[in-house]
């Protein structure tokens, strides 16, 4: 044989192999050595086991004998097949069907219990069977249900009752038995089960955990490495989309319930109107038990828009709304957000100062009352005790320059109604008096002719003087001469309402006496600051010149006084009448509390007054301009003011103002309680009552409350609606509802727009 | 020299008395796997070295030959505690022997047999590695060639994988606690020709991972798993295809010991051979009762009795796809009939060492062979089959229950599996690794099948009959490799006058004829009612 033939070609599976019998090839032995050229195939066994003694022996035996020998087989553990009770155990016979057996895919599920009774159970069953009939299957079903209903924790008896729906005695005995058995049970369940995998992977190496679920293998193309990445991205995207879906779903739900709430509120409102619950007493009675539970101990929240949610949270999480009072005299300018933290820090101390004074319960109810009409535009909650969180800078592209609402400030829509008032067409004297009023200064004590007040920056009150042909005469007027009696009682009685210009549409040229009489008859407005005789510190500040605006002479108002620019409407008769009542009340009030310099009497009078108010006047009230506090005169007291005002007094003041406006449209001297501590207890109940009165008067109240929450879109809308309705003598409740509904729409839009930022809602 | 005061601990080795098949006393060396302290006496769970695990048993102290007690190697103890197979059946002694058999330089054997002091382990193992590399005639152990390959390889993968792959290639330098284990493994020298193929390149590497073929299992999978073990203790899940594990690195002492004493199934009482993850609370029972038809496990005869009042099954809960005489086959979908499939797997695990029950049964079909009598269709054996096999497996696990063994049922099961493949028009092979009994059964089946064909070949027009390996494979549906290995095993392939020929010797022919006479159980293809499904077109298995 040549050497070449040793290098046998690889075995070609496609090449025919001739078959020989050994006897045909006597010279085959010569070629045997070449056999090695064919690579040995692996056995397919584990190496370690391949060499096992018995196998090797069996293999060699087979190769030698070509046949299995009994002694050469691989020994295995024995098995017996002589179970004697087999026939008793497996009863009955099974006839072989002619056809091949074909099972129905869903035919096997019968409702038989997985639990199988053991001999211990049998004893119990026998005992129970003495008293009642209980079938084994019935018992097994009970055990089965109990077992399957309990996970790590056992089913309680109550749950068991629901689960089993059996006779009480039976249930109790089986339940007790089960609990006992379960506790003695070594396994995790009385129905032995294969150990399940745990998702955390802790059971990955547990030998007793079997049949783990296969994680789905991604079916992606082999050659694209990034396919898996993009697949994962798609998965993630899908997850996020579904999350978005659920968020939107939840928003939808929330909006629906909000609409529901609105309708319910309106309904309540109408009902109250119908039964004449103007003071809110009935409502209170009804809601007190409820309120205890449901009302947030949050301040009367002047609804903030979404954007300022964070800030609103800061401000509102405490029941004491330091910044709530619009008339709070603050050392800082109004839009000072930089200092908000500082202010915030101060609060705890202030709270302690304040809290004892406040009648807690009244407050709550009051809040409830008001809260009822708050429809937040985005559904942000006043989290009752949520910790103060810093304003989220990232959500605020304008940074520190962003407009931020201040808690307690009410932001009102621009007064459009002024321009469309019918009085605009008036000319001459009437017009002059329409827009201006006779103004007096306390120091020096004299009249400064006709002027018009407005609020400047920082809440300063600026008086714009208007020249008229009466100037000369008026200058010599004694400010006190109008109220000779007032001097003796309260020298600084602030409010003098005028009579209506409708009535006084007389000759354009009026004499001074006529004028005086007009004023005295309260047909014309007269503003006179309150002399600060009790407050010496006020004098210090007095000299500070006011920022002058317009061409008018600068007038430093040494006391804080608000102008309310109002317009007069109709119903003058009633109003005049009311005004008279009011004055009486004032006098009474002042005589009882001489030190009180507030405008509290208004509140006192509110009850009777309110009865006469109709919707139009309420409209008027709603559209009244709110003056911001004037604070420059008394820093000391300002701080006191800053500390003390509570929502009650705020409400009161506000309503006073609007009430006053509604009455006469004349100059109202706004509340500036120099001693609010005294004012509060007195004014609070009335303030509250007052508010509810106004709100009860007509649906126009909705406008009013909308005004309180001013720049929210709904409020803006409401404001314009209100102004457009100014001429409507009577607003029917239905129209108000319409408005309210209509009003709801922009809210929702706003909400939807903002929903993308509602991160907090992500529950998943 | 050792007296009874010496405590025998896990890991000790000593001769243990056992009876062989001829009922003669033998004292094979055994390893103590566990000690049970029962009142009155101690029991020892012993594994007879070089015997299959199925013969492991609890023995009384009087069967131990204390005089020849060997204490466990220090290294062996750590793996024991870790549950790592430091003292697996692949005991050092035997590996020494094997190494010698396989021409590994004997120098490596003693060094490995000795204890590697723990602190120096790494250094020693590295030196050992080089030693082995130098000594082994096969250039397959971590060598410079592979190391350089490893340096290229990681760039194509993410970091974690690159670490892994590095471990694969340089297993000996990345030893951790199981260092000795991997040394042991790597001392098993691969067979010639095998290595080169598996190191072919990245693609093949990856394939090797998925592919649990015997050639790569011992070499690559094991170190791969090792590295996973050591990677921050994050256990990794085994591959998701197939039903058998060749990698036993996850084995802990729990799975090395039988946990069920006895199973009662129908008329039979079976002594399990291996561990099976039946609910743990049932393992302490003297007898575990199984419903013969639904295979539900029950803790007592009473429970079984109760169960039988509710269980109406008298046959496996699947469609009968074959019936001839009393023999029937039922097809069960592992996804649709989970309860039965799981019960079947649990039972089968008692007799299949390498079967894994790690994952669910969804991707498998189960073909249960039954024998009918008046009580119903009694399970005889079964085989499982992947619905879709990427590696031409037509059988995943195959088992004849012990009472039916050595009566031709195994071959019947195998025959049936190939009949299914014939219907599918594919060739197939059983999933690896094979067990000893599996190997014998398959070899026997293959031999008989191939010889049947060869003997039946008639010469046409005076020419010598001839056949290609491919033709044999097509006719029988036996995979080509199995045909070749059988031909080799039977020593039929010879090189004669410049070409390969098949030669049939007298004793082969005689042996075959005798065997075929005994083989009366055959599958009749006409009785098979089977239409293969294309599982790949379904969304799920």
Automatic annotation (TrEMBL), chain A:
It comes from the Eukaryota. Keywords: Chromatin regulator, Nucleus, Transcription, Transcription regulation. Residues 7-148 form the Enhancer of polycomb-like N-terminal domain. Residues 348-396, 493-512, 530-592, 632-668 are annotated as: Disordered. Pfam families: E_Pc_C (PF06752), EPL1 (PF10513). Residues 562-654, 677-764 form the Enhancer of polycomb C-terminal domain. Residues 632-650 have a biased composition (Polar residues). The keyword GTP-binding does not apply. Residues 348-361, 368-379 have a biased composition (Basic and acidic residues). Residues 496-507, 572-589 have a biased composition (Low complexity). The keyword Metal-binding does not apply. It is found in: Nucleus. InterPro entries: Enhancer_polycomb, Enhancer_polycomb-like_N, Enhancer_polycomb_C. Transmembrane segments: none annotated. This is Enhancer of polycomb homolog.
From TrEMBL, chain B:
InterPro entries: Acyl_CoA_acyltransferase, Chromo-like_dom_sf, Chromo/chromo_shadow_dom, HAT_MYST-type, MYST_HAT, Tudor-knot, WH-like_DNA-bd_sf, Zf-MYST. It catalyses: (2E)-butenoyl-CoA + L-lysyl-[protein] = N(6)-(2E)-butenoyl-L-lysyl-[protein] + CoA + H(+); L-lysyl-[histone] + acetyl-CoA = N(6)-acetyl-L-lysyl-[histone] + CoA + H(+); 2-hydroxyisobutanoyl-CoA + L-lysyl-[protein] = N(6)-(2-hydroxyisobutanoyl)-L-lysyl-[protein] + CoA + H(+); (S)-lactoyl-CoA + L-lysyl-[protein] = N(6)-[(S)-lactoyl]-L-lysyl-[protein] + CoA + H(+). GO terms for cellular component: NuA4 histone acetyltransferase complex; nuclear lumen. It is found in: Nucleus. It is an enzyme of class 2 (transferase). Keywords: Acetylation, Acyltransferase, DNA damage, DNA repair, Metal-binding, Nucleus, Transcription, Transcription regulation, Transferase, Zinc, Zinc-finger. CDD domains: NAT_SF. It comes from the Eukaryota. One of its GO terms (molecular function) is chromatin binding. GO terms for biological process: cellular response to oxygen-containing compound; double-strand break repair via homologous recombination; positive regulation of DNA-templated transcription. Its EC number is 2.3.1.48. Belongs to the MYST (SAS/MOZ) family. This is Histone acetyltransferase KAT5. The lineage of its organism: Eukaryota, Metazoa, Chordata, Craniata, Vertebrata.
């Amino acid at each position: 044989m040549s050497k070449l033939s040793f290098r046998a070609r690889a075995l070609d599976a496609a090449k025919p192999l001739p078959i020989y019998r050994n006897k045909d090839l006597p010279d085959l032995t010569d070629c045997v050595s070449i056999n090695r050229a064919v690579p040995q195939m692996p056995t397919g066994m584990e190496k370690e086991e391949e060499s096992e003694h018995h196998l090797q022996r069996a293999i060699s035996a087979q190769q030698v004998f070509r046949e299995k020998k009994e002694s050469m087989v691989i020994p295995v553990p024995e098995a017996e097949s002589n179970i004697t009770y087999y026939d008793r155990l497996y009863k009955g016979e099974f006839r072989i069907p002619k056809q091949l057996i074909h099972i129905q895919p869903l035919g096997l599920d019968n409702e038989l219990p997985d639990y199988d009774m053991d001999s211990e159970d049998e004893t119990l069953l026998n005992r129970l069977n003495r008293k009642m009939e209980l079938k084994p299957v019935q018992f097994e079903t009970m055990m089965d249900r109990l077992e399957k209903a309990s996970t790590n924790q056992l089913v309680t008896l109550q749950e068991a009752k629901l689960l089993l729906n059996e006779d009480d005695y039976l249930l109790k005995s089986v339940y007790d038995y089960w609990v006992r058995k379960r506790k003695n049970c070594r396994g995790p369940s009385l129905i032995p089960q294969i150990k399940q995998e745990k998702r955390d992977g802790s059971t990955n190496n547990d030998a007793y955990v079997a049949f783990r679920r296969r994680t789905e293998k991604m079916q992606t193309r082999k050659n694209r490495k990034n396919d898996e990445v993009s697949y994962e991205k798609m998965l993630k995207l899908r997850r996020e989309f579904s999350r978005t879906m659920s968020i939107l779903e939840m928003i939808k739900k929330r909006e629906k319930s909000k609409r529901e709430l609105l309708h319910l509120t309106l309904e309540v409102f109408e009902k109250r109107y119908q039964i004449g619950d103007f003071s809110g007493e009935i409502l209170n009675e009804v809601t007190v038990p409820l309120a205890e539970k449901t009302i947030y101990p949050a301040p009367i929240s002047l609804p903030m828009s979404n954007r300022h949610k964070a800030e609103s949270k800061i401000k509102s999480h405490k029941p004491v709304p330091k910044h709530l009072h619009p008339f709070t005299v603050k050392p800082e300018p109004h839009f000072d957000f930089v200092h908000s933290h500082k202010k915030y820090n101060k609060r705890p101390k202030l709270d302690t100062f304040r809290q004892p004074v406040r009648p807690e319960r009244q407050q709550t109810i009051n809040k409830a009352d008001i809260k009822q009409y708050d429809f937040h535009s985005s559904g942000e909650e006043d989290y009752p005790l949520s910790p103060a969180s810093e304003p989220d800078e990232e959500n605020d592209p304008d940074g520190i320059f962003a407009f931020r609402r201040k808690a307690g400030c009410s932001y009102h829509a621009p007064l459009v109604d002024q321009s469309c008032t019918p009085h605009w067409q008036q000319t001459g004297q009437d017009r002059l008096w329409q827009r201006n009023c006779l103004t007096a200064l306390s120091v020096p004590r004299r009249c400064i002719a006709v002027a018009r007040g407005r609020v400047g920056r920082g809440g300063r009150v600026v008086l714009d003087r208007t020249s008229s042909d009466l100037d000369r005469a008026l200058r010599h007027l004694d400010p006190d001469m109008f109220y000779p009696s007032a001097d003796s009682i309260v020298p600084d009685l602030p409010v003098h309402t005028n009579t209506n210009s409708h009535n006084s549409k007389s000759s354009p040229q009026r004499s001074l006496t006529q004028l005086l009489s007009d004023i005295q008859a309260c047909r014309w407005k007269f503003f006179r600051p309150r002399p600060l005789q009790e407050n010496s510190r006020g004098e210090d500040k007095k000299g500070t010149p006011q920022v002058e605006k317009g061409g008018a002479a600068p007038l430093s108002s040494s006391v804080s006084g608000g102008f309310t620019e109002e317009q007069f409407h109709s119903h003058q008769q009633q109003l005049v009448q009311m005004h008279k009542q009011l004055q009486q009340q004032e006098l009474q009030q002042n005589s009882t509390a001489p030190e009180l310099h507030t405008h509290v009497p208004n509140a006192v009078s509110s009850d009777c007054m309110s009865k006469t108010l109709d919707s139009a006047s309420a409209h008027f009230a709603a559209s009244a301009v709110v003056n911001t506090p004037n604070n420059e005169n008394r820093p000391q007291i300002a701080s006191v003011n800053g500390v003390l005002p509570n929502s009650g007094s705020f409400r009161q003041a506000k309503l006073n103002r609007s009430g006053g406006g509604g009455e006469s449209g004349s100059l109202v001297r706004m509340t500036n309680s120099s001693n609010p501590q005294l004012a509060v207890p007195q004014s609070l109940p009335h303030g509250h009552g007052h508010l509810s009165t106004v709100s009860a008067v007509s649906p126009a109240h909705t406008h009013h409350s909308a005004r309180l929450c001013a720049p929210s879109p709904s409020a803006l809308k409401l404001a314009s609606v209100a102004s457009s309705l100014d001429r409507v003598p009577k607003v029917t409740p239905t129209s108000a509802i319409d408005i309210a509904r209509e009003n709801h729409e922009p809210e929702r839009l706003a909400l939807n727009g903002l929903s993308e930022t509602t991160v907090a809602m992500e529950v998943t | 020299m050792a007296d009874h005061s010496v405590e025998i601990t896990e890991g000790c080795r000593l001769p243990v008395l056992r009876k062989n098949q001829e009922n003669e006393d033998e004292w094979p060396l055994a390893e103590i796997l566990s000690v049970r302290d029962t009142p009155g006496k101690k029991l020892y769970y012993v594994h007879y070295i070089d015997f299959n695990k199925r013969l492991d048993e609890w023995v009384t102290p009087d069967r131990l030959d204390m005089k020849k007690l060997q204490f466990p190697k220090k290294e062996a103890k750590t793996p024991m505690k870790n549950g790592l197979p430091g003292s697996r059946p692949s005991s050092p002694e035997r590996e020494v022997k094997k190494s010698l058999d396989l021409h590994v330089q004997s120098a490596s054997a003693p060094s490995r047999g000795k204890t590697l002091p723990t602190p120096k382990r790494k250094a020693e193992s590295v030196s050992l590695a080089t030693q082995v590399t130098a000594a082994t005639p096969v250039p397959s152990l971590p060598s410079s060639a592979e190391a350089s390959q490893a340096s290229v390889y990681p760039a194509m993968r993410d970091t974690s994988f690159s670490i892994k792959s590095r471990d694969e290639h340089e297993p000996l330098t990345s030893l951790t606690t199981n260092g000795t284990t991997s040394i042991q493994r790597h001392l098993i020298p691969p067979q010639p020709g095998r290595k080169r193929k598996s190191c072919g390149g990245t693609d093949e590497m990856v394939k090797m991972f998925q592919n649990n073929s015997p050639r790569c299992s011992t070499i690559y999978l094991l170190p791969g798993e090792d590295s996973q073990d050591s990677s921050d203790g994050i256990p990794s899940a085994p591959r998701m295809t197939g039903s058998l594990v060749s990698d036993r690195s996850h084995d802990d002492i729990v799975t090395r010991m039988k946990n069920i004493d006895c199973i009662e199934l129908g008329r039979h009482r079976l002594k399990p051979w291996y561990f099976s993850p039946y609910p743990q609370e049932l393992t302490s029972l003297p007898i575990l009762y199984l419903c013969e038809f639904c295979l539900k496990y029950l803790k007592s005869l009473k429970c079984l009795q109760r169960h039988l009042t509710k269980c109406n099954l008298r046959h496996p809960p699947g469609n009968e796809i074959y019936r001839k005489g009393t023999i029937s086959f039922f097809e069960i979908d592992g996804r649709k009939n989970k309860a039965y499939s799981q019960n079947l797997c649990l039972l089968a695990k008692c007799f299949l060492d390498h079967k894994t029950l790690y994952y669910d049964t969804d991707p498998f079909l189960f073909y249960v062979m039954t024998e009918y009598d008046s009580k119903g269709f009694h399970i005889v054996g079964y085989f499982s089959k992947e619905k879709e096999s990427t590696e031409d497996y037509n059988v995943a696990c195959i088992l004849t229950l012990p009472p039916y063994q050595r009566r031709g049922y195994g071959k019947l099961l195998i025959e049936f599996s190939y009949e299914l493949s014939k219907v599918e028009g594919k060739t197939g092979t059983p999933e690896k690794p094979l067990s000893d009994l599996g190997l014998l059964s398959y070899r026997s089946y293959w031999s008989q099948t191939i010889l049947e064909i060869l003997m039946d070949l008639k010469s046409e027009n005076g020419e010598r009959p001839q056949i290609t390996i491919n033709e044999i494979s097509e006719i029988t549906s036996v995979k080509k490799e199995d045909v070749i290995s059988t031909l080799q095993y039977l020593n039929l392939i010879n090189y004669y006058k410049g070409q390969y020929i098949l030669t049939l010797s007298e004793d082969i022919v005689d042996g075959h004829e005798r065997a075929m006479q005994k083989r009366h159980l055959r599958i009749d293809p006409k009785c098979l009612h089977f239409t293969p499904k294309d599982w790949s077109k379904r969304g799920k298995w």
